[in-house]
């Protein structure tokens, strides 16, 4: 049912009253530094000597032994001790895209730290595609892991390796891995051209696997119970094929990938679910990424992607007649389900990237009753950023360690259990329950972690057991790195 005009007036009225619409000063540079630091707390494998989150130590050192291969390294996705390939690859793509679009705005030390975080992930992703016609998609049995509350340094749960061998399909994970490696080759090329070449070669190989054996990885019966319901493919594999091809086009300048995007757009559902962007649905991001080609006048045959990107931007603008996004009373973009801030950070990222593309080509978006330009898109992104950093009804920063008021009881094993450096004795699976059930603040501050976020009414209980709200994830933080880089370089934007 189409909303009434009164609905739009009410929405605009609500937006004008959001606390974050006020001019409040934020230390965006500090938030940027902390958002990057968070990734050091998620590391698996042998930690380097310059590790800055010092309450962490080595973990997962035997990963891959059942396949007689080295699968150490990479990142834990959230507050557990499993390495899920699907969200890890998406996280890596978003970190790389942050550098590609906003790296020139980052202070040199933070650009370096972001590149280190990217390389930590890509070193692992290269291992996952190191064997012919096989991709490793996960390490760790999540069903057993999730019944334990155990430090990664102590974990004695099965480090089960989940792989997909051809001709079984894994188009989603392989396609996203191709995107991650291709985007990272761009982000890291200036610092290490040889490594960038390696990333691009493997991106091409991963994409070939994805395209040759089409289907969702979670449809494979031999791994389904390990990947679902955690990172099951809910939205189909088709978007990852187009997404991977788009990144390969941008990284390689190979027109073959443009032809692929053009010829496969309709058959792979490029017009579907255009208003979603996250680890499982790439459509909105794909449309923004491909629109760069159209806006620069390279490929008018891809105009449908730009039309979808324009449509998405219009849905985000309260003043637009096509606006239909849901907000909390305090002004946060809200979508039902857990870990809501993943939507706020990815959408803010796309708003800023599209604003850049429009500005460079002196264009705007026609939303029917209003033309929307770069300023409006950036203003909308800033409202989300400021809400996350504390301009909300609770006055709470949803980034751990930023401001004096932030979540103290996040759903994160390493953060909530005593550090192995303070408590070297082994803590077994169920022995950690006393720490999980404790009402005390976490002893180890996971600086920079952005939690799942508040409810639709802006409430937040700071409850370790309420993982949908209190658990941080890498894919919440990754796009926020680019967003914060922009506002750190433009602190007076209002």
UniProtKB/TrEMBL annotation:
GO terms for molecular function: cellulase activity. It comes from the Eukaryota. One of its GO terms (biological process) is cellulose catabolic process. Its EC number is 3.2.1.4. Coiled coil: none annotated. Residues 1-23 form the signal peptide. InterPro entries: 6-hairpin_glycosidase_sf, 6hp_glycosidase-like_sf, Glyco_hydro_9, Glyco_hydro_9_Asp/Glu_AS, Glyco_hydro_9_His_AS. Residues 28-484 form the Glycoside hydrolase family domain. PANTHER family: ENDO-1,4-BETA-GLUCANASE. This is Endoglucanase. It comes from Hevea brasiliensis (Para rubber tree). The lineage of its organism: Eukaryota, Viridiplantae, Streptophyta, Embryophyta, Tracheophyta.
């Amino acid at each position: 049912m189409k909303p009434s005009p009164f609905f739009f007036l009410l929405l605009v009225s609500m937006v004008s009253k959001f606390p974050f619409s006020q001019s409040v000063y934020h230390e965006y540079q500090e938030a940027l530094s902390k958002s990057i630091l968070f990734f050091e707390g998620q590391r698996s494998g042998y930690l380097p000597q310059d590790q800055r989150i010092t309450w962490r130590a080595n973990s997962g050192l035997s990963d891959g032994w059942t396949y007689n291969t080295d699968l150490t390294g990479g990142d834990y996705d959230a507050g557990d001790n499993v390495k899920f390939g699907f969200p890890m690859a998406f996280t890596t793509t978003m970190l790389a895209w942050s550098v590609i679009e906003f790296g020139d705005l980052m202070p040199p030390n933070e650009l370096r730290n972001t590149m280190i975080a990217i390389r930590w992930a890509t070193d692992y992703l290269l291992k996952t595609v190191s064997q012919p016609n096989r991709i490793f998609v996960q390490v760790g049995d999540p069903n057993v892991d999730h019944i334990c509350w155990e430090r990664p340094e102590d974990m004695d749960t099965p480090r089960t390796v989940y792989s997909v061998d051809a001709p079984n399909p894994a188009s989603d994970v392989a396609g996203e891995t191709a995107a991650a490696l291709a985007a990272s080759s761009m982000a890291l090329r200036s610092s290490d051209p040889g490594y960038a070449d390696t990333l691009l070669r493997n991106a091409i190989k991963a994409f070939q696997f994805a395209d040759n054996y089409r289907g969702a990885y979670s449809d494979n019966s031999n791994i389904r119970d390990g990947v679902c319901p955690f990172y099951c493919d809910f939205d189909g594999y088709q978007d990852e094929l187009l997404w991977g091809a788009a990144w390969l086009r941008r990284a390689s300048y190979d027109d073959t990938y443009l032809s692929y995007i053009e010829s496969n757009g309709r058959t792979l559902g490029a017009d579907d679910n255009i208003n979603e962007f996250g680890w499982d649905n790439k459509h909105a991001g794909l449309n923004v990424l491909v629109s760069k080609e159209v806006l620069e006048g390279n490929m008018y045959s891809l105009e449908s992607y730009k039309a979808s990107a324009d449509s998405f931007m219009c849905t985000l603008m309260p003043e637009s007649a096509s606006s239909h996004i849901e907000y909390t009373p305090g002004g946060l973009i809200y979508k039902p389900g857990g870990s809501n801030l993943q939507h706020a950070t990815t959408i803010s990222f796309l708003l800023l990237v599209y604003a850049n593309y429009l500005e460079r080509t002196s264009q705007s978006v026609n939303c029917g009753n209003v033309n929307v330009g770069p300023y409006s898109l950036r203003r909308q992104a800033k409202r989300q950023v400021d809400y996350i950093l504390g301009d909300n009804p609770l006055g709470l920063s949803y980034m751990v360690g930023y401001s004096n008021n932030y979540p103290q009881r996040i759903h994160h094993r390493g953060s909530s259990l005593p550090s192995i450096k303070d408590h070297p004795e082994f803590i077994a699976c169920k022995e950690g329950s006393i720490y999980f059930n404790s009402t005390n603040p976490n002893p180890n501050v996971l600086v920079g972690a952005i939690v799942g976020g508040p409810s639709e009414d802006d409430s937040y209980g700071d409850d370790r057991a309420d993982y949908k709200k209190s658990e941080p994830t890498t894919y919440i933080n990754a796009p926020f790195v680019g967003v914060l880089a922009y506002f750190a370089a433009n602190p007076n934007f209002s």
